[in-house]
């Protein structure tokens, strides 16, 4: 092994050890002192070259990226908890709810990542002379096989997720475990937290030591990268250029899927009804997708320019609407002339945002139309545009539905803004007797929030269906089975 390979091995080993230390760190609810997302993004970067050379490494790299983003959004989960608690400090139900969602998703995705990375290492060891990937190691005076290391990784993942979720049910606002009082439940919570974290740390230490031994053995053997080079050289049917192209395309298409979820709205009363999922983030992620896809289709420049306009208008609209809700609120529209005037500005910006959205989605649809005709299918003899459109008709129709669903989701948001401005004062007799209670109501209150959510979900489902089909067609075009 030459000096450059030795230096590369040491560097990769350092990155892996750094990641393992971050992953060993236990979490408390969604609080992560040493953020796991950093470790997962580093691991995805470490195995990027391996993903170009050997099977299963690409699946492992994608799994690490997904885990990175999931753990990145844990901070958002903590933000939701803090906002809800600020409105009602006695409401503890939000903590186990958010924690359970992240713990469950993290366990499922991590199991997939462990399976993929060990499949990749076993594939490499069974087909090359990099036998350290399938050889046992000595740890704690015992011989540990790689299959046992994989099982230990599953166990540690499960315990780590349970450790930060298991104590939280004892924080529920209305809960009765064994008829314990609230003060007793608080003590139980602390006890369960300490015990679960202690078990997780003990198993984590064993996992860290064993995995470090495994990584050191692979590093010292020095055949990991030469084996990858050999597989790449022998893989004549699928060039590295095609893999890089596929990765870029799949990154762009995945960005379309992620962006669709930012059409949802999460407006909490405790946070002045401000939407906590700003629409300009949807614009920003779509612009990233357009940028990544621009090398493989026509019309990307117009989509990118219109996307910039949409992002700018959407950001301005969000700022004005947030200012109105925090400074005035819908109830002030009845008696405050200044509030009504300011809300007209909010409505105008919402309409401008919708117009910008239509233009942006139109150019995206045209760009995707071009992409479909040049980057999907297996028939290379279709040069005539009419025959091509007939051949790719199903994908083009899905593209049109994607465009229409996006406009519909945007239209219902504008309608929500308009209807929320049409408030009126309703008086009703109170149960106290002569006193009157008044309430500000709107024709939007009863159904528009549900309608916004329904249209957003329709758009998300159509996007996921369309993009997954598009990914399959791209694979058919570039992968030789």
Widest sheet, order of strands:
1-2
Query: Overall mean pLDDT score?
Result: 81
Radius of gyration: 27 Å
Structural category is mainly alpha
Based on DSSP secondary structure assignment, what is the total number of beta strands?
Answer: 4
**Low-confidence sequence ranges:** 176-180, 379-388, 427-437
Q: Note the beta-strand portion.
A: under 5%
**Helix-strand topology string:** HHHHHHEEHHHHHHHHHEEH
Distance between the ends: 34 Å
Helix content: over 70%
Largest sheet: 2 strands, antiparallel
SS element count, helices = 16
The best one-word shape is flat
Keywords:
481 residues, mainly alpha, two-stranded antiparallel ribbon, 16 helices, 4 strands, flat
Structure description:
Helix 1 runs antiparallel to helix 2, helix 5 packs antiparallel against helix 6 and helix 6 runs antiparallel to helix 7. The two termini are 34 Å apart. Strands 1-2 form a two-stranded antiparallel sheet. Mean pLDDT is 81; it is low at 176-180, 379-388 and 427-437. By secondary structure, it is mainly alpha-helical. A hairpin with a 2-residue loop joins strand 1 (137-139) and strand 2. It has 16 helices and four strands. The chain has helices spanning 3-24, 36-46, 48-53, 57-72, 74-87, 94-127, 146-165, 182-221, 224-234, 240-260, 279-293, 300-327, 337-375, 385-391, 393-420, 448-478; strands at 137-139, 142-144, 424-429, 436-441.
């Amino acid at each position: 092994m030459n000096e450059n390979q030795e230096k590369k091995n040491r560097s990769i080993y350092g990155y892996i050890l750094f990641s393992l230390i971050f992953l060993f760190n236990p979490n408390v609810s969604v609080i992560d002192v040493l953020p796991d997302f950093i470790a997962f993004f580093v691991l995805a970067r470490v195995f990027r070259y391996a993903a170009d050379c050997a099977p299963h490494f690409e699946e492992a790299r994608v799994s690490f990226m997904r885990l990175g983003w999931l753990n990145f959004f844990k901070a958002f989960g903590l933000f939701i908890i803090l906002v809800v608690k600020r409105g009602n400090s006695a409401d503890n139900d939000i903590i186990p709810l958010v924690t359970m969602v992240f713990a469950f998703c993290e366990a499922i995705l991590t199991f997939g990542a462990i399976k993929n990375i060990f499949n990749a290492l076993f594939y490499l060891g069974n087909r090359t002379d990099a036998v350290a990937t399938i050889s046992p190691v000595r740890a704690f005076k015992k011989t540990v096989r790689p299959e046992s290391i994989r099982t230990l990784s599953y166990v540690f993942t499960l315990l780590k997720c349970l450790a930060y979720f298991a104590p939280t049910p004892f924080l529920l606002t209305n809960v009765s475990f064994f008829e314990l009082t609230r003060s007793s439940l608080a003590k139980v919570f602390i006890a369960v937290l300490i015990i679960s974290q202690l078990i997780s740390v003990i198993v984590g230490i064993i996992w860290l030591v064993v995995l470090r031994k495994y990584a050191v053995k692979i590093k010292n053997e020095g055949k990991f990268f030469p084996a990858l080079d050999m597989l790449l050289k022998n893989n004549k049917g699928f060039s590295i250029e095609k893999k890089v192209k596929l990765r870029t395309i799949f990154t762009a298409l995945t960005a379309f899927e992620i962006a669709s979820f930012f059409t949802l709205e999460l407006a909490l009363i405790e946070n002045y009804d401000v939407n906590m999922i700003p629409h300009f983030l949807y614009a920003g992620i779509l612009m990233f997708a357009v940028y990544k896809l621009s090398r493989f289709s026509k019309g990307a420049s117009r989509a990118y320019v219109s996307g910039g306009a949409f992002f700018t208008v959407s950001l301005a609209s969000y700022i004005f609407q947030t200012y109105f809700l925090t400074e005035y609120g819908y109830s002030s529209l009845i008696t405050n002339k200044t509030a009504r005037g300011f809300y007209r500005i909010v409505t105008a910006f919402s309409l401008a945002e919708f117009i910008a959205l239509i233009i942006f989605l139109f150019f995206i649809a045209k760009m995707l139309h071009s992409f479909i005709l040049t980057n999907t299918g297996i028939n290379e003899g279709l040069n005539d545009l009419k025959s091509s459109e007939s051949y790719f008709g199903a994908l083009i129709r899905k593209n049109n539905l994607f465009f229409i669903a996006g406009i519909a989701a945007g239209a219902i948001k504008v309608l929500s803004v308009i209807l929320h401005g049409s408030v009126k004062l309703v008086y009703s007799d109170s149960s106290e007797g002569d006193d009157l209670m008044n309430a500000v109501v709107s024709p939007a209150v009863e159904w528009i929030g549900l309608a916004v959510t329904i249209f957003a979900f329709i758009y998300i489902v159509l996007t996921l269906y369309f993009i997954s089909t598009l990914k399959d067609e791209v694979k058919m075009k570039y992968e030789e089975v």
